[in-house]
Design brief:
Blueprint lengths: L1 E5 L17 E5 L7 E8 L5 E8 L7 E2 L11 E9 L5 E8 L5 E9 L10 E7 L4 E6 L10 E5 L4 E7 L14 E7 L1 E7 L5 E6 L5 E8 L10 E7 L12 E4 L5 E7 L6 E7 L13 E2 L9 E9 L5 E10 L6 E10 L10 E2 L15 H12 L2
Length: about 375
C-alpha cells in the first residue's frame, strides 16, 4: 500500500487551452476516509502565488479553511502542491518555492500533524530550475521495515533527483548522500511509488518525445537502487497545447505492475500501456506498448492518465478526453475512466465520469492532482 501524488511540469512551453491553469490536489486519507484534504494554488491580488488548503473531517459534508501555508519573505511565491499521508497520520505537502527571478526554485515540504489545520515551516529538500515535475510517496505498509518513510523524486535540471526521509523532517538521498542526483542522463516527469513489500520504485521518461520509459527499484528504503529497466520505448509525446506526456504506474499486492502514458503515434493522444507480472522487472507485449482499451477508442485526445488499485483488486485508469462531443461541436474536456477486473490483462470500455464536459477556455479544468483525488473518491465505493 502506498500513497503517491505527482505534480505537473512548471513553466512548460507546451501549455495551451487544454492545460490546467492552476494546480490543485485532493487527498482522501487512506487511514480515515472521512478525512479529506484539498490544496490549491491561488494568486493573491499582488500577483504572488500561494497555497490554500481546506479540510473536511466528515466525508466532505462540511469544510474548513486551514491556517495559511507559510511563505518565506524572500520567495516570489509557492506553486504546484502535491499531498501524501504517512503511516503516522501526518500530512506531507510538497511544493515549489520560487526564487525572486522565478528561474530557480526550491522543492520544499510542509507537514501537518492535525489533519491539515496547521502547517509547519517548510523544509527545503532540493534546489534547482523552476521548470520541474515531482512526485511524493509514503510507505503505509504495516509489514514494511520502512513504514512511515516519505520519498520524493524530481526532474530538476532534467536530471533524476531523489530524496527520502524516515520522519519527514530530515532528508537524505541515495546511500549516505544528500538529496540530489540519483542517476545520470535525461529525466522527464518522474514518479515514485512504494509496493506492498516496502520496495521503492521510480519511473521516468528519458525525453519529451521519441524516448523511453525507465524504472529502478530499491529494496532497502532508497539506500541503494537496481540498474534501470526499460518499461517502454518509442514513446511519441502528445501535441502542442496538451499537458506533456507523463507515465503513471501502479503495483498490486501480488506484484502485477501496470504503466500507462499518453502517446501520439496515431496522430492523436491515446492512452497506451505495458504490464509486468513480476513487480516491474520484465514487461509483457510490444516494447512500445499497446492501447489501454481495444478498438478505436473515443476518437478524442486522451491525456494525463492516473492509476489506482481498489480494495477489491480492480485497476482503475482515469484520464481526460479533449475534443468535440458531437459533430462540429466545441472542443471540450471530459473526465473518463477504464477499469480492469483481471489485474490489468484487459480493460473494459471507457466510461465518462464528469456530469458534463467543460470548456477549458472558460472553466478551470482539473489538474493531475485532482484526477488522483477523483480516483481516491472512487476507491471508497
Amino acid at each position: 500500500m502506498t500513497e503517491t501524488m505527482k505534480s505537473q511540469k512548471r513553466g512548460s512551453k507546451r501549455e495551451g487551452s487544454a492545460v490546467a491553469r492552476n494546480a490543485s490536489a485532493l487527498l482522501v486519507n487512506p487511514l480515515d476516509p472521512q478525512h479529506i484534504v484539498g490544496v490549491e494554488e491561488i494568486i493573491l491580488p499582488d500577483g504572488v502565488p500561494v497555497i490554500s488548503a481546506r479540510i473536511s473531517f466528515d466525508g466532505g459534508t462540511c469544510w474548513r479553511e486551514s491556517w495559511p501555508v507559510p511563505v518565506e519573505a524572500e520567495w516570489a511565491g509557492v506553486v504546484g502542491p502535491v499531498l501524501a499521508m504517512d503511516a503516522h497520520g501526518t500530512l506531507n505537502l510538497a511544493a515549489l518555492a520560487l526564487d525572486p527571478e522565478r528561474s530557480r526554485a526550491s522543492l520544499v515540504v510542509y507537514r501537518s500533524e492535525d489533519g491539515g489545520i496547521h502547517w509547519t515551516l517548510p523544509e527545503v529538500v532540493l534546489q534547482g530550475a523552476s521548470e520541474c515535475c515531482y512526485s511524493i510517496a509514503t510507505d503505509l505498509n504495516p509489514a514494511s521495515p520502512f513504514r512511515g518513510s516519505v520519498y520524493l523524486a524530481a526532474d530538476m535540471g532534467n536530471t533524476l533527483c531523489f530524496a527520502r526521509s524516515s520522519d519527514g523532517n530530515s532528508w537524505s538521498g541515495r546511500g549516505n548522500s544528500k538529496p540530489g542526483l540519483l542517476l545520470h542522463g535525461l529525466c522527464f516527469n518522474p514518479e515514485v511509488l512504494v509496493d506492498t513489500g516496502g520496495a521503492v520504485h521510480v519511473v521516468w521518461m528519458t525525453g519529451p518525445s521519441g524516448c523511453s520509459i525507465l524504472a529502478v527499484d530499491s529494496a532497502d528504503g532508497g539506500h541503494t537502487f537496481s540498474a534501470p529497466v526499460t518499461v517502454a520505448e518509442g514513446i511519441i509525446g502528445v501535441q502542442e497545447g496538451l499537458p506533456e506526456t507523463a507515465p503513471a504506474t501502479c503495483i498490486t499486492e501480488d506484484g502485477v505492475a501496470l504503466c500507462v502514458w499518453a502517446d501520439d503515434r496515431e496522430g492523436r493522444a491515446r492512452i497506451y500501456h505495458r504490464r509486468s507480472l513480476d513487480g516491474g522487472r520484465t514487461w509483457q507485449g510490444a516494447s512500445a506498448g499497446n492501447p489501454l482499451v481495444d478498438g478505436g477508442g473515443s476518437g478524442q485526445h486522451e491525456f494525463q492518465p492516473h492509476l489506482i488499485v481498489t480494495a477489491g483488486g480492480e485497476i482503475c485508469c482515469a484520464f481526460y478526453e479533449y475534443g468535440p462531443k458531437n459533430p462540429g461541436g466545441d472542443l471540450l474536456v471530459d473526465l473518463a475512466m477504464a477499469v480492469s477486473y483481471d489485474r490489468g490483462a484487459t480493460f473494459a470500455g471507457r466510461m465518462v465520469l464528469s456530469e458534463r464536459p467543460w470548456d477549458p477556455a472558460v472553466d478551470q479544468p482539473l489538474s493531475r492532482g485532482a484526477t488522483r483525488g477523483a480516483l481516491g473518491w472512487l476507491a471508497l465505493a
